[in-house]
Amino acid sequence: AQTVTQSQPEMSVQEAETVTLSCTYDTSESDYYLFWYKQPPSRQMILVIRQEAYKQQNATENRFSVNFQKAAKSFSLKISDSQLGDAAMYFCAYRSSGANSKLTFGKGITLSVRP
Amino acid sequence: DAGITQSPRHKVTETGTPVTLRCHQTENHRYMYWYRQDPGHGLRLIHYSYGVKDTDKGEVSDGYSVSRSKTEDFLLTLESATSSQTSVYFCAISESGSRSGNTIYFGEGSWLTVV
């Protein structure tokens, strides 16, 4: 079974600075998808970014980018120019590419942004 | 935003009573999921569906049942609610398990308190 590990329960960053959130996963599959979701206090789950394992290029969405290291099974999220609205819980998630595949989440990390 | 509606959004019920949560989608997506979120556990899969009348168990399915009689609705039932089922429940949908539609979108959550 796949597992997703987020070892840092909390992190803090100064506004306008850069922060990196770590995630590792364990799988025996070669084709899969990885995601970062943001959950603000409203509890809405918001997709931040996704990465296809077959793509070598790291995904980027505006201020958000990932460092995908397939051999190391690592998938970190970098937030540049941090804003107060980035404060939230962030979840890393894994999904295999097969039919009937499920999304497996890490336990999440709480990010606070200092003004 | 994905067209996902959960109802009720908030409910307080007594131990031993049956409870049904409804997830309704307007996207005609094939896959639907029920997750629960608890502190320190991230989101954990309860049940999922990969088509009408096709369902399967997730990692925390004990005490829960589901039904999907039509594409747009996925019902989660607690036959006899217990205090351990106090949680936030999220419905999610996904177009397919193929490369073209692997992103999973979430509803706004249903807060259930069992007293």
Helix fraction of chain B, binned, reads under 10%
Number of strands of chain A: 12
Percentage of β-strand residues of chain A:
over 45%
Query: How would you describe the shape of chain A?
Result: globular
Structure description:
The complex is a heterodimer of chains A (115) and B (115). With 115 residues, chain A is mainly β. In chain A, 0% of the residues lie in helices and 53% in strands. Chain A has strands at residues 3-5, 10-14, 19-21, 24-26, 32-39, 46-52, 60-61, 64-69, 74-79, 88-96, 103-105, 109-114. In chain A, the strands form three sheets. In chain A, strands 2, 5, 6, 10, 11 and 12 form a six-stranded mixed β-sheet that branches. A four-stranded antiparallel β-sheet of chain A has the order 3-9-8-7, with no helix packed on it. The model of chain A has no long low-confidence stretch (mean pLDDT 93). By secondary structure, chain B is mostly beta strands. Helix content of chain B is 0%, strand content 57%. Chain B has strands spanning 4-7, 10-13, 19-25, 31-38, 42-51, 54-57, 64-70, 73-78, 87-94, 104-106, 110-114. In chain B, the strands form two sheets. In chain B, strands 2, 4, 5, 6, 9, 10 and 11 form a seven-stranded mixed β-sheet that branches. Chain B starts with a strand and ends with a strand. The relative contact order of chain B is 0.32. The mean pLDDT of chain B is 91. Classes of the chains: A mainly beta (115), B mainly beta (115). Chains A and B meet through strand 5, strand 6 and strand 11 of A and strand 4, strand 5, strand 9 and strand 10 of B.
